[in-house]
Amino acid sequence: MPNSNPAPAAMTLDDVRSVSPAFAKYTEALVVNDLWKRPALSARERSIVTVAALIMRNQTIGLLPYVNKALDAGVTPGEISELITHVAFYAGWPHAFAAVAIVKDIFAQRGIGADQLPPASPELLPVAQAVPDETVLAAVVEGLRPNFPGLMDYTEEVLIREVWRRPGLVPRDRALATISALVAGGLTGPLAFYLNRAVLMGITQAQVSEVVTHLAFYAGWPMVFSAIPAIQGVFSAPAP
Amino acid sequence: MPNSNPAPAAMTLDDVRSVSPAFAKYTEALVVNDLWKRPALSARERSIVTVAALIMRNQTIGLLPYVNKALDAGVTPGEISELITHVAFYAGWPHAFAAVAIVKDIFAQRGIGADQLPPASPELLPVAQAVPDETVLAAVVEGLRPNFPGLMDYTEEVLIREVWRRPGLVPRDRALATISALVAGGLTGPLAFYLNRAVLMGITQAQVSEVVTHLAFYAGWPMVFSAIPAIQGVFSAPAP
Amino acid sequence: MPNSNPAPAAMTLDDVRSVSPAFAKYTEALVVNDLWKRPALSARERSIVTVAALIMRNQTIGLLPYVNKALDAGVTPGEISELITHVAFYAGWPHAFAAVAIVKDIFAQRGIGADQLPPASPELLPVAQAVPDETVLAAVVEGLRPNFPGLMDYTEEVLIREVWRRPGLVPRDRALATISALVAGGLTGPLAFYLNRAVLMGITQAQVSEVVTHLAFYAGWPMVFSAIPAIQGVFSAPAP
Question: Domains along chain B?
Fold first, then answer.
């Protein structure tokens, strides 16, 4: 049985031009030379936003170029490692496995070994720093536990008590990745909760707005417009 | 033109570890050694849930290992065959074709031939057994027929009168696959209807709850949380 | 690092039969010999609907056969080129790049060169013809500009002022592709707006109904049923 995972080749601008000169023009003028250079988010932040969105949407064709771009923009191998683990909980294991298939070759090619990766079980960050809204979550979990005991056990033991507290990716970056994944995946239900967490971690409204601008190109206009009501709700709420 | 469908290789735990020791730890401790061994659903049932979800989300990387796992756990080749056909109507033809591309090689490798597959046109199960809520569906179809005559003809002739009545996969397994696909695909609109059907077919609330727990790992936490309101609505409704 | 994009091979009916005789039967009887021959939409129109839906859902396995089918049914190479560019804005860049990876080989095999593709910057159609509802959009954009300045700039400068006005794909075909992509992607929020635009461009209710019928097979029954409320709302609204 044939059995391989060639990383899908990134399309070059010439490839795009051979199908659509217009699409090549928009890619170059809008995305490469404009979007990525807008000051509201750094290239490092845009890389985190993009990789999270690509995993969420299983867009494997973008992972080879954008994980390389992320590494070039200052996202460390350890942070890529944590980012995949983090997004696995939000996008599902198989999407994260598809990312592993591509990133393991990137790591091998760059000579990135185990010594550059975060340990499986590091000392965790304090709850107050990583999960500042733990009491809100705990109340949700207790309310749902009678009908969903298994799901709530995993939610409490892993998602609340562990994942966000892993030190290999700072909580602010986890918040950035999470809201990007939720917007890109059309999962607007929990978006308000994570936007509030992002604000607690210092992400500004202007930065959230720019995440949405960025994701219009990576997830499409209708997807980001679908997230606007939830975002407006958080923006217009009185400060607590 | 290059033209092939190599089945995407399943990632081994060592592959995962080379990118993220933490992700390998969670995979082993939470999914392999815990989730799949929880008693509320058998490995056979979890296989049906997983394969339905993978097709629904076009997660081809998971199909090679999980269809093999399903066959090892007691899902027959004939049931895999029916499962793909069934989910085609809920996930769309192209997702099911992507599954065919992988499963045909698995069947060839295992020497599974036409004699082990259900016939195209078998004798159908009684309506009362396979579509116990036919009158509810018929009313919906009649209401929508003026504006959607083509869709309603296909719905009536194939989905209502035929697919669920095919004997190669028992109605209870079809219900399990359908609610799994709907939850995994975020298609919560028709979820209440199919949950009620699942209950009629003997699937308990505890089993539905466990399907949701299982799918948190395969479709991500936000996706299954989005299904909770519809599920709670069915759970809390008075018995008919 | 392996690095290639073989176009996923289309499954033949024999491939499908080797996994499921029933699925082959339904494919042949319902899709090939019935759906595509229904008179409410031409094969050319069904090709536009299908390709838009496949890009929207990243169903690369369908692109090789269906882009070829589109070219055989009278969609010109220039229209395929514009269609990919158009849908990029609605499905996101990476899905469109995955289409480019497959279509560039189809174009090469058929000897389709730059002379058959629309220029990057053609003379644009009049606003009244391509964006008849521009004042509605402008009001939305102004309302959202305070919180989403970047997104609104791109929306105004490119989506409103340029994409729909490109002459390489007539506005009616753009409307057909857009509503197909929105239904296939479950993005029902903006569906009413684009349905109204489609009606302005001469697409009838019977044709919209047939688009939904067609997409049931390509995106699954629950996805198209999710779009029905928005469509019913437009159908039942009094004529303006």
Answer: 13-122+166-236 (1.20.1290.10), 123-165 (no CATH)
Q: Is C110 on the interface with B (CB under 8 A)?
A: no
The structure tokens 């094969």 sit at C43
- CB neighbours (10 Å) of residue C135? 8
Beta carbons within 8 Å of B218's beta carbon, 6+ residues apart: A92, A93, A94, B50, B53, B54, B57, B59, B62, B184
Conformation bin of residue A8: beta by default, left when phi > 0, alpha when psi is -120 to 50: beta
Q: Per-residue confidence of chain B (240 residues) as pLDDT tens digits?
A: 334 566 778 889 999 999 999 999 999 999 999 999 999 999 999 999 999 999 999 999 999 999 999 999 999 999 999 999 999 999 999 999 999 999 999 999 999 999 999 999 999 999 999 999 999 999 999 999 999 999 999 999 999 999 999 999 999 999 999 999 999 999 999 999 999 999 999 999 999 999 999 999 999 999 999 999 999 999 887 655
Report CB contact under 8 Å: A114, B59. Answer: no
Structure tokens at C32: 């090939």
pTM of the shown model: 0.97
Cβ-count burial of C72 within 10 angstroms (0-12 exposed, 13-18 middle, 19+ buried)?
A: exposed
Q: Do B147 and C205 touch (CB under 8 A)?
A: yes
Helix axes B77-91, B43-56, angle to 10 degrees: 40
* Predicted ipTM of the assembly: 0.96
